[in-house]
From TrEMBL:
GO MF annotation: an example: ATP binding
Taxonomy, superkingdom: Eukaryota
Organism lineage string: Eukaryota, Metazoa, Chordata, Craniata, Vertebrata
Keywords from the named record: ATP-binding, Kinase, Nucleotide-binding, Transferase
Protein name: Clp1 P-loop domain-containing protein
Family, similarity comment: Belongs to the Clp1 family. NOL9/GRC3 subfamily.
Domain Clp1 P-loop: 96-205
Record's keyword annotation contains Kinase: yes
The species this protein was found in: Patagioenas fasciata monilis
C-alpha cells in the first residue's frame, strides 16, 4: 500500500451472481446485458486488455462525472458538519426538479462520508426511483459500503420500510405523508441522515414536498 499515492484508486472486481442478475439474464433480450461491448480500437497495454475483458474501458474527461465548484463546496461543508463533534447529527434533505442530479449527489455524498464515518442512514422518499429497495417503497436504510453500481446491485434489508404500492403519490398525498412520518420516526439520530425526495418543488406538488420536509425534521 505504501506504493500508492493519495490520488490512486483500488478497484476490487467480484463475480456478481445473485437471484436478481440470474432473473435478468433469463430474459432473452437481456441475456448479454453484462457482457462487455466490443470496441473497434485495440487495447494498448496489458492493463487495458484485462479491464476491457470485464467491461471496464477508459472514457474521456468529458464523459466522466463532472462536479461543479458549487457542488464541491456544498459537499465539503456537509462533510464538516457531519463529522463535527457537536451534539446531534445533521439531517440532509436533498431536493430539486427531476433530472438535476439528486441521485448522483446523494451517492457522491454517501461515498465521501463513508471515508470518515462507519455508516450513514438514508431515507428514500422518491417512490419512483428507489436506491436500496424495489420501487413503490418509502424506506430507511443504514449504509456501510460505498454505492458503486445501479440500484439492483445493492438492494438491502432496510431498518424500516413501507410499501406504498405506487410509483407516484400524486393521487394519494395524505397517505404518502403519513408513510413518510411513520418511516422517519424510526430514525434514532445517531448518525447523519440523507433524505432523498421526489422531484417536486413548485405548485401543488411543491406544497406536498414542503409538508414532507417538515415531517423529516
Amino acid at each position: 500500500m505504501a506504493q500508492f499515492s493519495p490520488g490512486c484508486t483500488l478497484v476490487l472486481l467480484e463475480h456478481l451472481d445473485t437471484p436478481v442478475t440470474r432473473f435478468l439474464l433469463s430474459h432473452p433480450p437481456l441475456s448479454r446485458l453484462f457482457e462487455p461491448q466490443k470496441k473497434e480500437e485495440s487495447s494498448f497495454t496489458p492493463e487495458d486488455a484485462v479491464l476491457a475483458a470485464v467491461g471496464i474501458v477508459p472514457c474521456s474527461a468529458e464523459r466522466g462525472l463532472l462536479v461543479s465548484q458549487s457542488m464541491l463546496a456544498a459537499l465539503e461543508e456537509l462533510i464538516r458538519a457531519c463529522c463535527a463533534e457537536d451534539e446531534g447529527v445533521p439531517v440532509v434533505l436533498v431536493c430539486g426538479p427531476k433530472n438535476t442530479g439528486k441521485s448522483t449527489f446523494n451517492r457522491y455524498l454517501i461515498n465521501l462520508l463513508l471515508n470518515h464515518l462507519p455508516s450513514v442512514e438514508y431515507m428514500e422518499c422518491d417512490i419512483g426511483q428507489t436506491e436500496f429497495t424495489p420501487p413503490g417503497c418509502v424506506s430507511l436504510s443504514n449504509v456501510t459500503e460505498p454505492i458503486l453500481g445501479p440500484p439492483f446491485t445493492h438492494q438491502q434489508t432496510p431498518l424500516k420500510m413501507v410499501y406504498f404500492g405506487q410509483t407516484s403519490c400524486e393521487h394519494d398525498t395524505e397517505r404518502y405523508l403519513d408513510v413518510v412520518k411513520y418511516v422517519f420516526s424510526s430514525y434514532k439520530k445517531e448518525v447523519p441522515l440523507i433524505v432523498n425526495t421526489m422531484g417536486w418543488v413548485k405548485g401543488k406538488q411543491g406544497a406536498v414536498f414542503s409538508r414532507g420536509a417538515a415531517a423529516a425534521r
